[in-house]
Amino acid sequence: MGHIFIFLIGFGLAVSGGVTLIVYVNFLPAGLGWMDYILFIKDRPECYFLPIGILLMGIAIYRFPNNL
C-alpha cells in the first residue's frame, strides 16, 4: 500500500513542477532569453518538484514492480 502512496506523491509533485515550468516559459515572450529562463528557474524551489516527482514515481514502479 505504501508504494501507491509514494507513486501518487511523486505524480503530484511532477505535475506541480511541470506546470510551474510551463508557466515560467511565459517569461520568454516578455523579452527574457533561454539562458535567463534557466538561471531564473534554478533559483525557484518549486521547479525541483518535477525531477523529484519523477524520481519518486520511478522508485515506486521499479522497487515494487508487481504491486502496481
Helicity level: 55-70%
| Anisotropy-based shape | elongated
Put simply, the count of helices is 3
| Protein structure class | mainly alpha
Mean pLDDT rating: 90
Could you please describe the fold and organization of this structure?
The protein has 68 residues and is mainly alpha-helical. It has helices at residues 2-24, 34-41, 49-63. The mean pLDDT is 90.
Summarize the structure.
By secondary structure, this protein is mostly helical.
Describe how the helices and strands are arranged.
Layout: H1 2-24, H2 34-41, H3 49-63
Helix pairs in contact: 1-3
Please describe the structure with a list of short key phrases separated by commas or semicolons.
single chain, mainly alpha, elongated
